[in-house]
Automatic annotation (TrEMBL):
Source organism (scientific name): Larkinella arboricola
PANTHER family with a match to the protein in the record: HTH-TYPE TRANSCRIPTIONAL ACTIVATOR RHAS (PTHR46796:SF13), HTH-TYPE TRANSCRIPTIONAL ACTIVATOR RHAS-RELATED (PTHR46796)
Domain HTH araC/xylS-type, chain residue ranges per copy: 155-256
Protein name: Helix-turn-helix protein
Molecular function GO labels: DNA-binding transcription factor activity; sequence-specific DNA binding
Domain of life where this protein originates: Bacteria
InterPro entries per record: AraC_XylS_family_regulators, DUF6597, Homeodomain-like_sf, HTH_AraC
Keyword DNA-binding: yes
Length: 256
């Protein structure tokens, strides 16, 4: 299995986290892969064999189709057969709605096949399954397509807001964030609900979980999970464990 990320052009970085590809090649049997939630949204092109995703119910990504993966608030399990070949565009929070006008109200944890009228792209520039791809050339074409949507876009306020959440690792009350940006809690919650399909408080929880996951992944032997829990703003070890079971599907002690 081979997963690789590619950096978007500089002017698209306010809207995109990365481009990525995932290929299995020849496998003796289907391979499982667990994906933990972040605060991004993915548009996935299936260029190979059918891929199954389970997140409480089973979804099938059919060959030759593009899909929108809504903001995740729990883990997803992928079952990747031999010949799986996925290419994805990972949008930062508000990137999809700001750049392409696609809002995600009601789309949390949903996987939706994209209608050509909603996402009118001919993605035949990707190499067909079974042919050695040239991803750098493909992503340059994607850059060109996305840059056509940049005219008149200003993501400064949203970037600053999300940047604040990331800087403080999600450890802030909604009312405090609203006061900092001279708005109301209701306006903030409505903006997050319409554009991301997820409440602001949940976004804060996801940011804190991702930060904690990285701390545990790179912890030194003398560091206890309780020490990390306090550092990441959890009340106690039990609070940390509940979040891990919800978002990762396993205990924090299984990392590393």
């Amino acid at each position: 299995m081979h997963y690789q990320e590619y950096t978007p052009s500089t002017d698209l970085i306010p809207y995109l986290d990365c481009y990525w590809t995932l290929r299995t090649g020849t496998l003796p049997m289907a391979s499982p892969r667990r994906v933990i939630p972040d605060i991004c949204t993915d548009v996935i092109f299936n260029l190979g064999e059918e891929v199954q995703i389970w997140n409480g119910k089973t979804h099938r990504l059919k060959p030759g189709k593009p899909y929108l993966i809504g903001t995740m608030t729990t883990f997803q399990d992928m079952l990747l057969p031999a010949g799986a070949n996925l290419a994805g565009i990972r949008f930062k929070p508000f990137g999809l709605s700001t750049l392409l006008g696609i809002r995600q109200q009601g789309m949390a944890n949903q996987i939706q096949e994209l209608d050509p009228t909603t996402f009118p792209w001919d993605y035949g520039f990707f190499q067909p399954s079974g042919i050695e791809p040239e991803p750098q050339a493909d992503w340059k074409k994607i850059n060109t397509l996305l840059r056509r949507h940049l005219h008149g876009k200003d993501n400064t306020l949203i970037n600053n807001l999300v940047g604040t959440l990331l800087d403080i690792r999600g450890q802030i009350a909604v009312r405090e964030l609203a006061s900092q940006y001279h708005t109301t809690e209701r306006q903030l919650e409505r903006k997050f609900g319409e554009h991301l399909g997820v409440p602001l408080k949940e976004i804060c929880n996801l940011i804190r979980f991702q930060y904690t996951y990285q701390l545990i992944s790179h912890r030194e032997r003398q560091q206890s999970l309780l020490d990390i829990a306090f550092r990441a703003g959890y009340y106690d070890h039990a609070h940390l464990t509940r979040h891990f079971k919800r978002y990762a599907g396993h205990l924090p002690s299984r990392i590393g």
